[in-house]
Write a structure and sequence with these properties.
The structure is a single chain. With about 260 residues, the protein is α/β, with parallel strands linked by helices. The chain folds into two domains: about 200 residues, NAD(P)-binding Rossmann-like Domain (Rossmann fold, 3-Layer(aba) Sandwich), CATH 3.40.50; about 35 residues, no CATH class. It is built from eight helices and seven strands; from the N terminus they run βαβαβαβαβαβαααβ. The protein has a seven-stranded parallel β-sheet, sandwiched between helices. Helix 5 links the parallel strand 5 and strand 6. Helix 1 crosses helix 8, helix 3 packs parallel to helix 4 and helix 4 packs parallel to helix 5.
Amino acid sequence: MDSQLANKVAIVTGASRGIGRAIAEELGREHMRLVLVARSGGLLTEVAGSIGCECLIHVADLRKTAAAAEVIAAAIQQFRGIDLLVNNAGATQRGDFLKLSDADWTDGFALKFFGAMRLCRAAWPHLAASRGSIINVVGVGGRTASADFTIGGAVNSACLNLTKALAQRGLKDGVRVNAINPGVIMTGRLERRIKTAAAEQGLDYETAAKKMVEKLGIARFGTPAEIAHAVNFLASAAASYCQGTIIDVDGGETRTL
């Protein structure tokens, strides 16, 4: 499939590890020019070196109000345009609702929701000019609530609503806006979660992982590359009729309509 992405410009947030790194590598194989955004400059340098395409490294904490505008300004200065924005950054605190603090809630919304919202707003005129697209990497918790994921679920639901609202605006302005809901993906964060569960339950790592898969009702954990493939599709010309589309890449974990 010819994705028609070669030489176009993509911004990928949270690009230093896990799903974000896989997305950057996937788009690099499509010969896109990339703006890689994360808080760790060292890791971004490593990612850029492994990709082999033209990359701009931009170290930013997207929780800060001015950070999004600075990312877009850097992208325009380097590449003179933007064709794709992938909002992937943002992890939220799990835990007992009664023990989660106001600071935990504020931090959860600050990075994943407000960071993405501000990037969409700052990039919008440039995406309209290029007839580009936005892909929000959100999460299945936005569709299915969980008692130990109240912050993440609320943030993800807000991101999905934003996706639908901007997709409606995009019809007028020529910007495609879509989202991907990853399920449980094998990243460093999941590995730490499994190790914690193993310690709490007195199990070895493999047994704890197997029990988690069984509890979720899925056959296996997903891989970052599988999310990256979905991003590639939504960014490509093959998805030109996708507007406000939300794709669950979760191994069947989501069973609601």
